Amino acid sequence: MNHFYKWTIESRPIYGLGKFDTTGTWQSVTGPLVMCKNGFHVCRRQDLPFLCGTCLWQVETRGEELEEELIENDLDDNKLCFREIRFLRQLKWNREDMLEFFRWCMSRIPVNISCANSNIRAAAYADLATAREISAACKADLAINRGGSLLFLHRAYRAEAQAVRSAAALLACYRNAIIERREQLEWIENRIGETLS
Length: 197
Fold this sequence. Notes:
Mean pLDDT: 78
Radius of gyration: 17 Å
Number of domains: 2
Strand content: 15-25%
Low-confidence stretches: 71-76, 165-174
């Protein structure tokens, strides 16, 4: 058995339908594991900045595993899903934390993207990518809660993405984007008040 982390919108997935049992009961899927379609997607510690949600959980997995390595503009990212999962505990993270993380990422984009050094501009790519995932989480949260308070965030991301897109496409080196991911992870850990493993 392995311990990982999972982002959710309350007790629901960020992408897709359904609801998780967060009481500690083992849950499983039937049929072939298919990434993003059938199975329980989880994050390792270093994967946390690649997604986001209103809740963060420590989970345990067992059974069949599917791993897919993604290369996104030379930034290594791995997607993991398992046949069985159970939720162990909820970490100290909520909707306001998600919104603050979004604001933090967005505030770093103009500074990094204006730098003449392409290595530093690459950090803006990492922040933009994280903002995109938070924007998706906000859309899911809106669909569940039928509220309009998060719509501004999605619009803010879209406006910033338009401004950054052309510059991000010119980036040649992504070393600083990886460093920025580590800073994002440090921000998350500081926010929840514990170092994850």
